[in-house]
Amino acid sequence: MRSHHCPNSSRFPLPFLGLALVLLISLAPPTSSCTEQEKSSLLQLLAGFSQDGGLGSSCRNDTDCCTWEGITCSPNRMVSAVLLASRGLEGSISQFLGNLTGLLRLNLSCNSLSGGLPLELVSSSNITVLDVSFNRLTGALSELPSSTPAWPLQSLVVLNASTNSFTGHLPTTLCLSAPSFSVLELSINKFSGNIPHGLGNCSMLKLLSAGYNNLSGTLPDEVFKVTSLEHLSLPNNWLEGALNGITKLTNLVTLDLGGNKINGNIPDAIGKLKSLEELHLEQNHMSGELPSALINYTHLTTIILKGNQFHGELTKVNFSNLPNLKKLDLLHNNFIGNIPESLYSCSKLTALRLSSNHFHSQLSEKIDISNNSFTGEISTALMEMPMLKSDKTAPKVFFELPVYLFSPFIQYLKPGAFPKVLNLAINKFTGVIPGEIGQLRALVSLNLSSNKLSGEIPQPICTLTNLQMLDMSSNHLTGQLSTFPDSSFDENPKLCGPSIVNHCGSAEASPESINSREEIGSKTSSCTEQEKSSLLQLLAGLSQDGGLTTSWRHDTDCCTWEGITCNQDRKVTDVSLASRGLEGPISPFLGNLTGLLRLNLSRNLLSGGLPLELVSSSSILVLDISFNRLTGGLSKLPSSTPARPLQVLNISSNWLTGILPSTTWEVMKSLVVLNASSNRFTGQIPTTPCVSAPAFAVLELSFNQLSGNIPPGLSNCSVLKLLGVGYNNLNGTLLDELFNVTSLEHLSLPSNRLEGALDGISKLTNLVTLDLGGNELSGNIPESIGDLKRLEELHLEHNNMSGELPAALGNCTNLVTIDFKANQFSGELTKVNFASLSNLNKLDLLSNNFTGTVPESIYSCSKLTALRLSYNPFHGQLSEKLFNMKSLLFLSLANNSLTNITRTLQMLSSSRSLTTLYIGCNFLHETMPEDVSIDGFQNLQVLYINHCSLSGKIPDWLSKLPNLGMLFLQGNQLTGPIPEWISSLNFLFSLDISNNSLTGEIPRSLMEMPMLESDNTAPKVFFELPVWNKNQFLQYLTPSAFPKELNLAMNSFTSMIPAEIGRLQGLFSLNLSSNRLSGEIPEQICNLTNLQMLDLSGNHLTGKIPAALNNLHFLSRFNISNNDLEGPIPNMGQFSTFPDSSFGGNPKLCGPMVANHCGSAEASPVSIDPIKQIGSEAIIFMTAFGVFFGVGVLYDQKVLARHFG
């Protein structure tokens, strides 16, 4: 899901970080006092806030309002700027702001403001910059009424209303009224309708961003007439049409239309866009070949075309003409042929993904070429790649939208933030791993799995000290890691195991938070020689300077240097060097910058400690050194140190250790934000700031090694809004003192060992997020929970809670997510009026003890996208009101006692949105409905109707499900043959119809299933809730991560195994056990080179075991027991590792695994009833299947350690 909050580093809103770290404090010096009228208007603004963020202490009627926090005045006594970003403001925006006739800049971003934009404000004729992003504003931004002034907002240059809940059509009045209007940022809202034609009048518009809305219709030609556009970003809408008119936008630098329904090809004339740097067309319906005109984009840094239907060879594009290309993503297309030689000339390429295409032959060097059919040895040329041999990073380039790595599931905003990856998995590489691989010391992830590599793991691989992920599974490697000395694993802080101090199973680091735009400061004068010298000392200490030397020269004014901002007093006020690829220590000489207010060195590769000179600075207000490699402890300042002005300290995502010293916080009298998450801090939660810093609002300590109880001293944090201490080692009872912090809006303590009950939670009436999942809480949810009127996210999963859900839960009308899975809640749900929860998006009650029927009120939740009620004893029929749930994507009702499957499927089939349906273990002994009564399920991809003991046949209506990828009908009493139409399900890749009473031959049509014939994967769709495989060893976020499987076991199929089965080369698992199959094992089965599990036991198979099965190098589970096979058992390769039971019940077999020695007299044949032979062997086999799969393909899964479904 997209985020509606200010950038954060955890799953709950963190509105004080990201952009707020830079914009928190505005220190523009006043030049005169404001008028009484303007003072009155500002006080009216303050009066409208229910939470004023502490402004009341500054904004007093008896003081000069030009001295108030966040207020700037012009020389003629007029308020020119109101800059109140990230102040924790709540309430509405006052209409009296319209009385500030000299107001030029208004920034209210990153707060919790609600309501609409006052007409008086949007009618202003002077305002140039209006930023209300990252709030909770609603209403329309449509055309202004005719009663407004003739030229409303005539001076407007920038409007940023992104990340709110605005509705209606995109506004176009500004295009006529504001001749200099340049920036319109409306992304992440709820705008709908077509793109209005009036945008064609925006003759000076440079940036148009309206992604992540509900826009629809065709891209109008009027948009292509705005020739001034440099950045066009409309991703994740429902836009259609072709790109034929795009060539008119010759000034485009960024084009992002990903995640829409754009069709057609990329026109040849697109080569006219000479300035284009980023091209995002992913996840559309585009096709055709890539035009050779792409070579005209000499400035291109990013090409993202994944998830389309492009085809043809890439050799038509001369990639060597793209010298600046850094990221190329062609994942999931239909490209063929060789990797073009010109691609190897892209020396700046840091990320390349060509996965899931049809490339063939050998290659020289690549970054991500997994899941193709490449052969040969791993070339030593790969070991000469400069960017992988050093920790250098490319110059900073931000994506318009985050992109995701599939494993781990983390989002990134720029190519430079991606880990350095070498992925050669799922190919056919042979030979040994070159010892030269130890040269690639910058590698973060190395995946050589599922190839045919042999020999020992080379010792130099232990020199890859930056490595976080290493996968060499499913090869023929020898030796063992346990023989390596402990020192071989040193300097890899994210590794775990017995050889190092980290025990596996500990919490992982939190995903990287999003870094927002930095405020542009004034550079009106040069800095002093002393300050220039201090900055050059920083540069001199860096081993990698990110190209700063071209700007940072001694003979130039340092106020003009990149990342440096000065004030009018010749003082350096800002050093903003985030994401520059800097390496080396942080210079203590930065402490000599006596006017420094903000220091941002985040997202680099800085090492060493945090200098005491910075922590003890007498000027720094905002210090952000997050996402680096800093080590050591946090400096301890003596209590005699004068008060320090630091307000924001972000040291998250480093390698810092030790305790958080209390005396340091004693002198931080102005501290507002402390983010020390994702480090290795130990000891207890610090509470000193609660006493020493009266404005202390954010304490984020998740993903550390903190221990002990929650300290009572937290009750002194009277204005604390966010407390995040999840994924630590906290224990003890939830204290009443914690519930006395009534200012809390976000309380997140998941995955600890906390005990106790929630009786006092109702005191926290300001809570928006409550996350206590994965603890040991007991008791029930109190009725007083209904007092939490603002609550949006409620996570109590994986605890020991019990009792009935209180009716008062229906009073929490802002709830978006309820996750109560894996508790012991009981009783009927009818007491809760879910109809009052109009914003509810996800409801997960998996694995509890709820009884009765599914309540009628739950069908009124029209915004519900995910509903899971599985593993409860619900009974009865589903209501006809199920038709109301138009937004439902994910529905899981498995393992209940529901009845009337026919009516259930009739109602659900009308859904146009449903992609995942679990209804197994219900409807016992009913009849599978026939095709005449079911029509729909247009987007269904996953269907489980398993273990229901249904009679009847495999229904024909299944043939009408065009997107079905996974079908599970096992554990029923279905009869008849497998229907011929099975091959028409073009996306079906996992079929389990085992444990039925099906008869006939295995049809040839089953061997024509497109997804099983190839390594292609189904179109990407994400589960709304994580699910797990049949043995609960793995959890998944997307269906396509499941293995390709064909399970026909425990039926009554007869005749021979078709030779055509050798065509299903995409199969991971094939189970034909416990049938009545006869004849020999076909040689063609040896063509299934991806096969990892093969079970042919419990049949009447004869003949010999094909020797070529030795070539199935991935095969790890094999069972041919209880047949009538004969001859020697192969004793080469992996066959020597299979248990003896894999061959038992075949008296004519001989070899060391069975009693018969080859050459001895054969025993007489034994009659076998295959149905009676399954017993415990099938159970053992399936358990082993789950265990193996959990190891063999872990790198391709989205594993969530907290949830089991």
UniProtKB/TrEMBL annotation:
Cellular compartments per GO CC: plasma membrane
Coiled-coil regions listed in the entry: none
Transmembrane segments: 1178-1195
InterPro entries documented for this protein: DNA_repair-toleration (IPR053211), Leu-rich_rpt (IPR001611), Leu-rich_rpt_typical-subtyp (IPR003591), LRR_dom_sf (IPR032675), LRR_N_plant-typ (IPR013210), LRR_R13L4/SHOC2-like (IPR055414)
Record flagged with keyword Signal: yes
Membrane topology (UniProt): Single-pass type I membrane protein
Subcellular location: Cell membrane
Leucine-rich repeat-containing N-terminal plant-type domain boundaries: 37-74, 530-567
Alphabetized UniProt keyword annotations: Cell membrane, Glycoprotein, Leucine-rich repeat, Membrane, Receptor, Repeat, Signal, Transmembrane, Transmembrane helix
UniProt entry tagged with the keyword Membrane: yes
GO MF, one example: protein kinase activity
Domain Disease resistance R13L4/SHOC-2-like LRR stretches: 182-367, 708-846
Signal peptide per UniProt: 1-33
Pfam families: LRR_1, LRR_14, LRR_8, LRRNT_2
Family, per entry: Belongs to the RLP family.
UniProt-recorded name of the protein: Leucine-rich repeat-containing N-terminal plant-type domain-containing protein
